[in-house]
Amino acid sequence: MTHPNASVALASTVLDELRRHGVSDVVVAPGSRSASLSMTALAMGFDVHVELDERSAGFYALGLSMGGALPAIVTTSGTAVANLLPAVVEADLSNRPLIVLSADRPPELLDRGANQTIEQRGIFGSRVRWEFDPGPAEDRPASNSLWRSMVSRAVASAEGAVGRPGPVHLNLPFREPLVPATDDGRTAGARFTSPTEGRPGGVPWTLAPDREVPALERASEHERTLVILGDAAGRVHVDLQAVAFVAEPHSGLRDGYALTGLHHLATHPRAGDWLPDRVVTVGRVGLSRPLSMWLADVPTTAVDPSGRWLDPTSRAEGMVRRVAVPAADPEWLASLRSIDDVIGRAINSELDGQSEVSEPRLARDTARAVSPGGRLIAASSMPIRDLDLFMDVAMPVHANRGASGIDGFVSTALGVASTAGGPVVALAGDLSMLHDSNGFLLSERPDCVFVVVDNDGGGIFSFLPQADYQDGFERIFGTPHGRSFERLADFHGLGFAVVDEPDGIQSAVATAMQEPGISLVVAKTDRTANVGVHRRLTQVAHHAIDDLLSP
Protein backbone atom coordinates (compact mmCIF):
# COMPACT_ATOMS: atom_id res chain seq x y z
CA MET A 1 0.00 0.00 0.00
CA THR A 2 1.31 3.46 -0.91
CA HIS A 3 0.05 6.91 0.08
CA PRO A 4 0.09 10.26 -1.74
CA ASN A 5 2.47 11.73 0.84
CA ALA A 6 3.84 11.32 4.35
CA SER A 7 1.06 13.29 6.06
CA VAL A 8 -1.65 11.07 4.60
CA ALA A 9 0.41 7.97 5.46
CA LEU A 10 0.68 8.98 9.13
CA ALA A 11 -3.00 9.90 9.43
CA SER A 12 -4.20 6.76 7.63
CA THR A 13 -2.03 4.41 9.69
CA VAL A 14 -2.98 5.97 13.03
CA LEU A 15 -6.69 5.94 12.23
CA ASP A 16 -6.62 2.41 10.84
CA GLU A 17 -4.97 1.15 14.02
CA LEU A 18 -7.50 3.00 16.16
CA ARG A 19 -10.31 1.31 14.23
CA ARG A 20 -8.68 -2.10 14.84
CA HIS A 21 -8.85 -1.32 18.56
CA GLY A 22 -12.58 -0.62 18.36
CA VAL A 23 -12.55 3.18 18.04
CA SER A 24 -15.44 4.32 15.84
CA ASP A 25 -16.12 7.92 16.99
CA VAL A 26 -13.89 10.84 15.99
CA VAL A 27 -14.70 14.32 17.25
CA VAL A 28 -13.25 16.94 14.90
CA ALA A 29 -12.69 20.63 15.51
CA PRO A 30 -11.94 22.29 12.14
CA GLY A 31 -8.41 23.37 11.29
CA SER A 32 -5.75 23.27 8.59
CA ARG A 33 -2.83 21.41 10.22
CA SER A 34 -5.19 18.56 11.14
CA ALA A 35 -6.51 18.23 7.56
CA SER A 36 -4.97 14.80 6.97
CA LEU A 37 -6.58 13.42 10.11
CA SER A 38 -10.07 14.87 9.59
CA MET A 39 -10.25 14.11 5.86
CA THR A 40 -8.98 10.55 6.36
CA ALA A 41 -11.39 9.90 9.24
CA LEU A 42 -14.28 10.91 7.00
CA ALA A 43 -13.01 8.84 4.06
CA MET A 44 -12.52 5.76 6.25
CA GLY A 45 -16.12 5.78 7.47
CA PHE A 46 -15.65 6.81 11.10
CA ASP A 47 -18.58 8.42 12.90
CA VAL A 48 -17.25 11.97 12.57
CA HIS A 49 -18.72 14.59 14.93
CA VAL A 50 -17.81 18.21 14.10
CA GLU A 51 -17.69 20.85 16.85
CA LEU A 52 -16.66 24.44 16.04
CA ASP A 53 -15.25 25.07 19.51
CA GLU A 54 -12.45 22.82 20.84
CA ARG A 55 -13.60 23.20 24.45
CA SER A 56 -17.02 21.93 23.44
CA ALA A 57 -15.43 19.19 21.35
CA GLY A 58 -13.58 17.95 24.42
CA PHE A 59 -16.70 17.74 26.54
CA TYR A 60 -18.71 16.20 23.70
CA ALA A 61 -16.06 13.45 23.49
CA LEU A 62 -16.28 13.09 27.28
CA GLY A 63 -20.00 12.47 26.90
CA LEU A 64 -19.32 9.81 24.29
CA SER A 65 -16.94 8.20 26.75
CA MET A 66 -19.58 8.21 29.47
CA GLY A 67 -21.86 6.42 27.02
CA GLY A 68 -19.38 3.61 26.66
CA ALA A 69 -17.43 4.72 23.56
CA LEU A 70 -13.68 5.22 23.26
CA PRO A 71 -13.60 8.51 21.32
CA ALA A 72 -10.71 10.24 19.56
CA ILE A 73 -10.54 14.05 19.43
CA VAL A 74 -8.80 15.77 16.50
CA THR A 75 -7.58 19.36 16.82
CA THR A 76 -5.33 21.62 14.80
CA SER A 77 -2.21 23.20 16.30
CA GLY A 78 -1.81 26.14 18.70
CA THR A 79 -4.38 27.24 21.28
CA ALA A 80 -6.84 24.76 19.80
CA VAL A 81 -5.05 22.08 21.86
CA ALA A 82 -5.03 24.23 25.00
CA ASN A 83 -8.82 24.52 24.85
CA LEU A 84 -9.10 20.78 25.55
CA LEU A 85 -7.59 21.16 29.04
CA PRO A 86 -10.89 21.43 30.98
CA ALA A 87 -12.24 18.24 29.40
CA VAL A 88 -8.91 16.46 29.90
CA VAL A 89 -8.92 17.45 33.59
CA GLU A 90 -12.44 16.10 34.01
CA ALA A 91 -11.52 12.88 32.19
CA ASP A 92 -8.48 12.51 34.45
CA LEU A 93 -10.39 12.93 37.70
CA SER A 94 -13.32 10.79 36.58
CA ASN A 95 -11.18 8.05 34.94
CA ARG A 96 -12.84 8.50 31.54
CA PRO A 97 -10.90 7.22 28.51
CA LEU A 98 -10.18 9.85 25.82
CA ILE A 99 -7.65 9.87 23.00
CA VAL A 100 -6.43 13.33 22.01
CA LEU A 101 -4.88 13.56 18.53
CA SER A 102 -3.36 17.03 18.26
CA ALA A 103 -1.90 18.03 14.91
CA ASP A 104 1.30 20.00 15.28
CA ARG A 105 3.80 21.98 13.24
CA PRO A 106 7.08 20.15 12.50
CA PRO A 107 10.11 20.87 14.74
CA GLU A 108 11.71 23.30 12.28
CA LEU A 109 8.78 25.70 12.84
CA LEU A 110 8.80 25.57 16.65
CA ASP A 111 10.13 28.60 18.56
CA ARG A 112 10.61 30.51 15.30
CA GLY A 113 7.59 32.79 15.39
CA ALA A 114 5.63 30.56 12.98
CA ASN A 115 1.90 31.16 12.87
CA GLN A 116 -0.39 29.12 15.16
CA THR A 117 2.58 27.37 16.79
CA ILE A 118 3.07 26.69 20.51
CA GLU A 119 4.88 23.98 22.49
CA GLN A 120 2.21 21.25 22.56
CA ARG A 121 4.22 18.44 24.07
CA GLY A 122 3.51 18.24 27.78
CA ILE A 123 0.67 20.74 27.56
CA PHE A 124 -1.62 18.53 29.72
CA GLY A 125 1.06 17.73 32.28
CA SER A 126 0.23 14.96 34.71
CA ARG A 127 -3.44 14.94 33.66
CA VAL A 128 -2.87 12.37 30.92
CA ARG A 129 -2.06 8.71 31.47
CA TRP A 130 0.42 8.67 28.60
CA GLU A 131 1.76 11.11 26.04
CA PHE A 132 3.85 10.54 22.93
CA ASP A 133 5.18 12.49 19.95
CA PRO A 134 6.54 10.25 17.16
CA GLY A 135 8.08 13.13 15.24
CA PRO A 136 7.26 14.04 11.63
CA ALA A 137 6.38 11.19 9.28
CA GLU A 138 9.34 9.60 7.51
CA ASP A 139 9.17 7.23 4.55
CA ARG A 140 10.98 4.29 6.11
CA PRO A 141 9.89 0.72 7.01
CA ALA A 142 10.17 1.27 10.76
CA SER A 143 7.52 4.01 10.70
CA ASN A 144 4.63 1.56 10.43
CA SER A 145 5.53 -0.42 13.57
CA LEU A 146 6.27 2.79 15.50
CA TRP A 147 2.92 4.38 14.65
CA ARG A 148 0.83 1.26 15.21
CA SER A 149 2.57 0.35 18.46
CA MET A 150 2.06 3.95 19.61
CA VAL A 151 -1.69 3.67 19.00
CA SER A 152 -1.88 0.28 20.74
CA ARG A 153 -0.18 1.71 23.80
CA ALA A 154 -2.39 4.79 23.76
CA VAL A 155 -5.54 2.63 23.72
CA ALA A 156 -4.19 0.39 26.49
CA SER A 157 -3.37 3.44 28.62
CA ALA A 158 -6.74 5.09 27.99
CA GLU A 159 -8.68 1.95 28.84
CA GLY A 160 -6.71 1.30 32.01
CA ALA A 161 -4.89 -1.84 30.91
CA VAL A 162 -1.62 -0.37 32.21
CA GLY A 163 -3.02 1.74 35.03
CA ARG A 164 -6.28 3.51 35.75
CA PRO A 165 -8.38 4.64 32.76
CA GLY A 166 -8.18 8.20 31.54
CA PRO A 167 -7.05 10.58 28.81
CA VAL A 168 -3.99 10.10 26.61
CA HIS A 169 -2.30 12.54 24.23
CA LEU A 170 -0.70 11.78 20.86
CA ASN A 171 0.96 14.87 19.41
CA LEU A 172 1.40 14.37 15.67
CA PRO A 173 3.62 16.78 13.69
CA PHE A 174 2.62 17.15 10.03
CA ARG A 175 4.72 18.67 7.28
CA GLU A 176 3.05 20.08 4.18
CA PRO A 177 1.46 18.92 1.96
CA LEU A 178 -1.42 18.13 4.28
CA VAL A 179 -3.92 16.88 1.67
CA PRO A 180 -3.72 14.10 -0.95
CA ALA A 181 -3.86 16.35 -4.04
CA THR A 182 -3.41 19.94 -5.14
CA ASP A 183 -6.20 22.12 -6.54
CA ASP A 184 -5.45 20.97 -10.10
CA GLY A 185 -5.81 17.31 -9.11
CA ARG A 186 -2.16 16.39 -9.26
CA THR A 187 -0.58 14.40 -6.43
CA ALA A 188 0.86 16.70 -3.79
CA GLY A 189 4.36 15.88 -2.58
CA ALA A 190 6.46 12.75 -2.85
CA ARG A 191 4.61 9.45 -2.55
CA PHE A 192 5.04 7.46 0.67
CA THR A 193 6.08 3.98 -0.45
CA SER A 194 7.07 2.16 2.78
CA PRO A 195 4.60 -0.54 3.90
CA THR A 196 1.88 0.54 6.34
CA GLU A 197 -0.21 -2.63 6.57
CA GLY A 198 -1.54 -3.78 9.93
CA ARG A 199 -1.70 -7.31 11.31
CA PRO A 200 -3.52 -9.87 9.14
CA GLY A 201 -7.20 -10.37 9.91
CA GLY A 202 -7.78 -6.83 11.13
CA VAL A 203 -6.43 -7.52 14.64
CA PRO A 204 -4.65 -4.81 16.66
CA TRP A 205 -0.89 -4.40 16.36
CA THR A 206 -0.25 -5.05 20.06
CA LEU A 207 -2.83 -6.49 22.41
CA ALA A 208 -2.92 -4.88 25.85
CA PRO A 209 -2.08 -6.51 29.20
CA ASP A 210 -4.55 -9.15 30.37
CA ARG A 211 -6.28 -9.34 27.00
CA GLU A 212 -6.46 -12.52 25.00
CA VAL A 213 -3.43 -13.15 22.79
CA PRO A 214 -4.75 -15.20 19.85
CA ALA A 215 -1.33 -16.36 18.67
CA LEU A 216 -0.64 -18.01 22.02
CA GLU A 217 -4.13 -19.44 22.18
CA ARG A 218 -3.46 -21.16 18.86
CA ALA A 219 0.03 -22.33 19.81
CA SER A 220 0.48 -26.05 19.69
CA GLU A 221 1.85 -27.86 22.70
CA HIS A 222 5.17 -28.44 20.97
CA GLU A 223 5.65 -25.12 19.21
CA ARG A 224 9.16 -23.74 18.76
CA THR A 225 8.85 -21.12 21.50
CA LEU A 226 11.93 -19.35 22.82
CA VAL A 227 11.65 -17.56 26.17
CA ILE A 228 14.02 -14.70 27.02
CA LEU A 229 14.14 -13.82 30.70
CA GLY A 230 15.17 -10.35 31.87
CA ASP A 231 14.52 -8.30 34.99
CA ALA A 232 11.44 -9.22 37.06
CA ALA A 233 11.42 -12.66 35.40
CA GLY A 234 11.46 -14.37 38.78
CA ARG A 235 7.91 -13.13 39.40
CA VAL A 236 6.52 -15.07 36.41
CA HIS A 237 6.01 -18.81 36.69
CA VAL A 238 7.34 -20.76 33.72
CA ASP A 239 8.30 -24.44 33.72
CA LEU A 240 11.87 -23.87 32.52
CA GLN A 241 12.66 -27.56 32.13
CA ALA A 242 10.15 -27.88 29.32
CA VAL A 243 11.00 -24.79 27.27
CA ALA A 244 13.93 -23.32 25.41
CA PHE A 245 15.03 -20.23 27.31
CA VAL A 246 17.75 -17.63 27.54
CA ALA A 247 18.27 -16.05 30.96
CA GLU A 248 20.03 -12.72 31.13
CA PRO A 249 22.36 -12.70 34.17
CA HIS A 250 20.28 -10.33 36.32
CA SER A 251 17.11 -12.39 35.81
CA GLY A 252 18.20 -14.67 38.64
CA LEU A 253 17.08 -17.70 36.60
CA ARG A 254 20.23 -18.79 34.82
CA ASP A 255 20.61 -22.45 35.71
CA GLY A 256 21.68 -25.70 34.09
CA TYR A 257 18.79 -25.57 31.63
CA ALA A 258 19.48 -22.04 30.34
CA LEU A 259 20.82 -21.72 26.80
CA THR A 260 23.96 -19.58 26.97
CA GLY A 261 25.34 -20.08 23.45
CA LEU A 262 22.47 -18.76 21.33
CA HIS A 263 24.26 -15.42 21.00
CA HIS A 264 26.93 -17.24 18.98
CA LEU A 265 24.48 -19.45 17.11
CA ALA A 266 22.57 -16.32 16.05
CA THR A 267 25.45 -15.21 13.80
CA HIS A 268 26.09 -18.64 12.26
CA PRO A 269 25.18 -19.01 8.55
CA ARG A 270 22.74 -21.83 9.38
CA ALA A 271 21.11 -20.06 12.33
CA GLY A 272 17.82 -19.95 10.43
CA ASP A 273 17.46 -23.73 10.84
CA TRP A 274 16.82 -23.18 14.57
CA LEU A 275 14.74 -20.03 14.35
CA PRO A 276 11.79 -20.24 16.79
CA ASP A 277 8.15 -19.85 15.75
CA ARG A 278 7.54 -17.43 18.60
CA VAL A 279 9.47 -15.47 21.20
CA VAL A 280 8.19 -14.68 24.68
CA THR A 281 10.13 -11.99 26.53
CA VAL A 282 9.73 -11.71 30.28
CA GLY A 283 10.67 -8.38 31.84
CA ARG A 284 13.05 -5.91 30.23
CA VAL A 285 15.47 -7.71 27.91
CA GLY A 286 17.92 -6.80 25.16
CA LEU A 287 21.53 -7.36 26.25
CA SER A 288 22.53 -9.32 23.15
CA ARG A 289 22.44 -7.44 19.85
CA PRO A 290 23.12 -10.59 17.73
CA LEU A 291 20.25 -12.40 19.41
CA SER A 292 17.92 -9.43 18.93
CA MET A 293 18.79 -9.17 15.22
CA TRP A 294 18.31 -12.94 14.72
CA LEU A 295 14.85 -12.77 16.25
CA ALA A 296 13.81 -9.44 14.69
CA ASP A 297 11.08 -10.92 12.47
CA VAL A 298 9.79 -13.61 14.84
CA PRO A 299 6.32 -12.96 16.39
CA THR A 300 6.85 -11.77 19.95
CA THR A 301 4.76 -11.58 23.10
CA ALA A 302 6.06 -9.39 25.94
CA VAL A 303 5.28 -10.40 29.51
CA ASP A 304 5.69 -8.20 32.55
CA PRO A 305 3.95 -8.87 35.87
CA SER A 306 3.66 -5.15 36.70
CA GLY A 307 2.13 -4.24 33.34
CA ARG A 308 5.04 -2.18 31.98
CA TRP A 309 4.98 -1.57 28.24
CA LEU A 310 8.22 -3.29 27.25
CA ASP A 311 8.44 -3.16 23.47
CA PRO A 312 11.58 -1.28 22.32
CA THR A 313 11.22 -2.56 18.74
CA SER A 314 7.49 -1.64 18.51
CA ARG A 315 6.78 -5.10 17.07
CA ALA A 316 5.28 -7.10 19.94
CA GLU A 317 1.91 -8.71 19.16
CA GLY A 318 0.84 -8.91 22.78
CA MET A 319 1.65 -7.15 26.05
CA VAL A 320 0.53 -9.32 28.97
CA ARG A 321 1.09 -9.72 32.69
CA ARG A 322 1.10 -13.50 32.59
CA VAL A 323 1.23 -16.22 29.96
CA ALA A 324 1.17 -19.99 29.68
CA VAL A 325 4.17 -20.94 27.55
CA PRO A 326 3.67 -24.18 25.60
CA ALA A 327 6.27 -26.93 25.95
CA ALA A 328 8.91 -26.65 23.25
CA ASP A 329 9.09 -29.08 20.36
CA PRO A 330 11.20 -31.89 21.91
CA GLU A 331 13.36 -32.45 18.84
CA TRP A 332 14.09 -28.78 18.39
CA LEU A 333 14.81 -28.29 22.10
CA ALA A 334 17.16 -31.28 22.20
CA SER A 335 18.97 -29.96 19.14
CA LEU A 336 19.36 -26.51 20.69
CA ARG A 337 20.69 -27.97 23.92
CA SER A 338 23.20 -30.12 22.04
CA ILE A 339 24.48 -27.10 20.11
CA ASP A 340 24.56 -25.03 23.28
CA ASP A 341 26.61 -27.69 25.07
CA VAL A 342 29.09 -27.92 22.19
CA ILE A 343 29.46 -24.13 22.05
CA GLY A 344 30.00 -23.93 25.81
CA ARG A 345 32.71 -26.59 25.82
CA ALA A 346 34.50 -25.02 22.85
CA ILE A 347 34.50 -21.54 24.36
CA ASN A 348 35.66 -22.74 27.77
CA SER A 349 38.48 -24.68 26.15
CA GLU A 350 39.54 -21.56 24.25
CA LEU A 351 39.40 -19.43 27.40
CA ASP A 352 41.36 -21.98 29.42
CA GLY A 353 44.11 -21.98 26.81
CA GLN A 354 44.60 -18.20 26.69
CA SER A 355 48.08 -16.94 27.49
CA GLU A 356 46.99 -13.37 28.29
CA VAL A 357 44.43 -11.89 30.64
CA SER A 358 41.17 -11.36 28.71
CA GLU A 359 37.90 -9.71 29.61
CA PRO A 360 35.71 -12.71 28.68
CA ARG A 361 37.72 -14.99 30.96
CA LEU A 362 37.72 -12.40 33.72
CA ALA A 363 33.93 -12.37 33.60
CA ARG A 364 33.62 -16.15 33.57
CA ASP A 365 36.16 -16.71 36.33
CA THR A 366 34.85 -13.89 38.52
CA ALA A 367 31.43 -15.57 38.52
CA ARG A 368 33.05 -18.92 39.29
CA ALA A 369 34.97 -17.36 42.19
CA VAL A 370 31.91 -16.20 44.11
CA SER A 371 31.39 -18.42 47.14
CA PRO A 372 28.19 -20.45 47.48
CA GLY A 373 25.49 -18.21 48.87
CA GLY A 374 27.26 -15.14 47.55
CA ARG A 375 26.09 -12.44 45.17
CA LEU A 376 27.54 -10.88 42.07
CA ILE A 377 26.99 -7.23 41.10
CA ALA A 378 27.56 -6.35 37.44
CA ALA A 379 28.28 -2.90 36.05
CA SER A 380 26.67 -1.75 32.82
CA SER A 381 28.48 -1.61 29.48
CA MET A 382 30.83 -4.58 28.88
CA PRO A 383 30.84 -6.35 32.30
CA ILE A 384 27.14 -7.35 32.19
CA ARG A 385 27.46 -8.32 28.52
CA ASP A 386 30.52 -10.48 29.14
CA LEU A 387 28.68 -12.23 31.95
CA ASP A 388 25.75 -12.76 29.60
CA LEU A 389 28.05 -14.37 27.04
CA PHE A 390 30.44 -16.35 29.23
CA MET A 391 29.07 -16.91 32.76
CA ASP A 392 28.55 -20.65 33.26
CA VAL A 393 27.43 -20.86 36.91
CA ALA A 394 24.13 -20.05 38.61
CA MET A 395 23.92 -17.35 41.27
CA PRO A 396 22.05 -14.14 42.11
CA VAL A 397 23.29 -11.30 39.88
CA HIS A 398 22.30 -7.68 40.50
CA ALA A 399 22.60 -4.89 37.96
CA ASN A 400 21.23 -1.39 37.39
CA ARG A 401 19.45 -2.23 34.14
CA GLY A 402 16.58 0.22 34.49
CA ALA A 403 18.40 3.00 32.67
CA SER A 404 21.55 0.89 32.07
CA GLY A 405 23.90 3.69 33.15
CA ILE A 406 27.37 3.27 34.60
CA ASP A 407 26.74 5.89 37.30
CA GLY A 408 26.37 5.00 40.96
CA PHE A 409 27.89 1.52 40.60
CA VAL A 410 30.21 1.63 43.62
CA SER A 411 27.44 2.89 45.90
CA THR A 412 24.94 0.32 44.58
CA ALA A 413 27.37 -2.53 45.20
CA LEU A 414 28.14 -1.34 48.73
CA GLY A 415 24.43 -1.01 49.43
CA VAL A 416 23.88 -4.63 48.39
CA ALA A 417 26.90 -5.71 50.45
CA SER A 418 25.63 -4.01 53.59
CA THR A 419 22.46 -6.15 53.55
CA ALA A 420 23.55 -9.32 51.74
CA GLY A 421 24.56 -11.51 54.66
CA GLY A 422 27.08 -13.31 52.45
CA PRO A 423 30.00 -12.72 50.11
CA VAL A 424 29.54 -9.97 47.53
CA VAL A 425 31.70 -9.55 44.45
CA ALA A 426 31.28 -6.66 42.00
CA LEU A 427 32.52 -6.83 38.40
CA ALA A 428 33.17 -3.36 37.02
CA GLY A 429 34.79 -1.49 34.20
CA ASP A 430 37.33 1.18 35.04
CA LEU A 431 35.03 4.05 34.06
CA SER A 432 32.22 2.72 36.27
CA MET A 433 34.63 2.70 39.20
CA LEU A 434 36.02 6.17 38.57
CA HIS A 435 32.57 7.63 37.89
CA ASP A 436 31.41 6.75 41.40
CA SER A 437 34.67 6.60 43.33
CA ASN A 438 33.12 8.99 45.87
CA GLY A 439 31.01 6.01 46.90
CA PHE A 440 34.06 4.86 48.87
CA LEU A 441 33.61 7.86 51.20
CA LEU A 442 30.86 5.81 52.89
CA SER A 443 31.45 5.73 56.64
CA GLU A 444 30.66 2.01 56.74
CA ARG A 445 32.96 -0.69 55.41
CA PRO A 446 30.80 -3.65 54.27
CA ASP A 447 32.62 -6.70 52.94
CA CYS A 448 32.82 -6.35 49.18
CA VAL A 449 35.37 -7.31 46.51
CA PHE A 450 35.50 -5.15 43.35
CA VAL A 451 37.01 -6.87 40.31
CA VAL A 452 38.06 -4.00 38.04
CA VAL A 453 38.64 -4.45 34.30
CA ASP A 454 41.14 -1.67 33.61
CA ASN A 455 41.38 -1.11 29.87
CA ASP A 456 42.06 2.60 30.31
CA GLY A 457 38.80 3.87 28.89
CA GLY A 458 35.44 3.00 27.34
CA GLY A 459 35.86 -0.50 25.94
CA ILE A 460 32.35 -0.96 24.57
CA PHE A 461 32.85 1.78 21.95
CA SER A 462 35.46 -0.37 20.20
CA PHE A 463 32.61 -2.72 19.24
CA LEU A 464 30.45 0.06 17.79
CA PRO A 465 30.53 1.80 14.39
CA GLN A 466 32.33 4.76 15.98
CA ALA A 467 35.50 2.65 16.03
CA ASP A 468 35.69 2.87 12.22
CA TYR A 469 36.33 6.60 12.49
CA GLN A 470 39.73 6.95 14.10
CA ASP A 471 39.89 10.74 13.91
CA GLY A 472 39.07 11.77 17.44
CA PHE A 473 37.96 8.26 18.48
CA GLU A 474 40.28 8.00 21.47
CA ARG A 475 39.53 11.50 22.64
CA ILE A 476 35.72 11.40 22.63
CA PHE A 477 34.93 7.65 22.83
CA GLY A 478 37.99 5.75 24.08
CA THR A 479 38.56 8.44 26.74
CA PRO A 480 41.80 7.07 28.27
CA HIS A 481 41.99 8.23 31.89
CA GLY A 482 45.50 7.19 32.91
CA ARG A 483 44.51 6.82 36.57
CA SER A 484 46.06 4.38 39.02
CA PHE A 485 43.66 2.17 40.92
CA GLU A 486 46.40 1.32 43.39
CA ARG A 487 46.53 4.99 44.34
CA LEU A 488 42.75 5.08 44.54
CA ALA A 489 42.78 2.10 46.90
CA ASP A 490 45.50 3.70 49.02
CA PHE A 491 43.57 6.99 49.21
CA HIS A 492 40.39 5.27 50.43
CA GLY A 493 42.13 2.66 52.58
CA LEU A 494 41.01 -0.33 50.51
CA GLY A 495 42.61 -3.72 50.03
CA PHE A 496 44.39 -4.06 46.69
CA ALA A 497 45.62 -6.84 44.43
CA VAL A 498 46.64 -7.14 40.77
CA VAL A 499 45.87 -10.04 38.45
CA ASP A 500 48.38 -10.37 35.60
CA GLU A 501 47.99 -14.08 34.76
CA PRO A 502 44.92 -15.47 32.91
CA ASP A 503 44.29 -18.12 35.57
CA GLY A 504 44.82 -15.81 38.55
CA ILE A 505 41.42 -14.24 39.02
CA GLN A 506 39.72 -16.99 41.04
CA SER A 507 42.48 -17.26 43.61
CA ALA A 508 42.79 -13.46 43.86
CA VAL A 509 39.05 -13.09 44.52
CA ALA A 510 39.06 -15.97 46.99
CA THR A 511 41.90 -14.34 48.93
CA ALA A 512 40.21 -10.93 48.90
CA MET A 513 36.95 -12.43 50.18
CA GLN A 514 38.81 -13.66 53.28
CA GLU A 515 39.75 -10.10 54.20
CA PRO A 516 37.25 -7.84 55.97
CA GLY A 517 36.14 -4.61 54.35
CA ILE A 518 36.46 -3.45 50.75
CA SER A 519 39.08 -4.69 48.30
CA LEU A 520 39.99 -3.97 44.69
CA VAL A 521 41.25 -6.75 42.41
CA VAL A 522 42.49 -5.10 39.22
CA ALA A 523 43.30 -6.70 35.87
CA LYS A 524 44.72 -4.65 33.01
CA THR A 525 43.48 -5.42 29.49
CA ASP A 526 43.78 -3.86 26.05
CA ARG A 527 40.63 -2.47 24.39
CA THR A 528 41.71 -3.20 20.82
CA ALA A 529 42.88 -6.71 21.67
CA ASN A 530 39.55 -7.33 23.45
CA VAL A 531 37.64 -6.91 20.19
CA GLY A 532 39.87 -9.54 18.61
CA VAL A 533 39.31 -11.92 21.53
CA HIS A 534 35.54 -11.66 21.18
CA ARG A 535 35.71 -12.24 17.44
CA ARG A 536 37.98 -15.24 17.96
CA LEU A 537 35.51 -16.75 20.44
CA THR A 538 32.68 -16.33 17.92
CA GLN A 539 34.81 -18.15 15.32
CA VAL A 540 35.49 -20.94 17.81
CA ALA A 541 31.75 -21.28 18.45
CA HIS A 542 31.01 -21.38 14.72
CA HIS A 543 33.68 -24.03 14.09
CA ALA A 544 32.20 -26.14 16.90
CA ILE A 545 28.75 -25.88 15.28
CA ASP A 546 30.21 -26.82 11.89
CA ASP A 547 31.90 -29.89 13.39
CA LEU A 548 28.65 -30.96 15.02
CA LEU A 549 26.71 -30.59 11.78
CA SER A 550 29.28 -32.18 9.47
CA PRO A 551 28.41 -35.72 8.33
Task: Give a quick set of tags describing it.
551 residues; Rossmann fold; 6-stranded parallel beta sheet; 18 helices; 17 strands; alpha/beta
* Content of β-strand: 5-15%
Number of strands: 17
- Alpha-beta content class: alpha/beta
Compute the average pLDDT.
90
CATH class of the largest domain: Alpha Beta
Shape field: elongated
Q: In the residues, how many domains can be counted?
A: 3
The number of helical runs is 18
| Cα-to-Cα separation, first versus last residue | 46 Å
Tell me the layout of helices and strands.
Elements: H1 6-20, E1 25-28, H2 35-43, E2 47-50, H3 54-66, E3 72-75, H4 79-82, H5 85-93, E4 98-104, E5 130-132, H6 142-159, E6 167-173, H7 214-217, E7 225-229, E8 244-247, H8 262-265, E9 278-282, H9 289-294, E10 300-303, E11 318-320, H10 330-352, H11 359-369, E12 375-378, H12 382-390, E13 397-399, H13 409-420, E14 424-429, H14 430-435, E15 448-454, H15 473-478, H16 485-492, E16 495-499, H17 505-514, E17 518-524, H18 527-549
Parallel strand pairs: 1-2, 1-3, 3-4, 4-6, 5-6, 7-8, 7-9, 9-10, 10-11, 12-13, 12-14, 14-15, 15-17, 16-17
Architecture overview:
With 551 residues, this protein is an alpha/beta fold. The protein folds into three domains: 6-202, Rossmann fold; 214-335, TPP-binding domain (Rossmann fold), CATH 3.40.50; 353-536, Thiamin diphosphate (ThDP)-binding fold, Pyr/PP domains (Rossmann fold, 3-Layer(aba) Sandwich). It is built from 18 helices and 17 strands. Strands 2-1-3-4-6-5 form a six-stranded parallel β-sheet, with helices on both faces. A six-stranded parallel β-sheet has the order 13-12-14-15-17-16, sandwiched between helices. Strand 16, helix 17 and strand 17 (518-524) form a beta-alpha-beta unit. Helix 10 (330-352) packs across helix 18 and helix 11 crosses helix 17 (505-514).
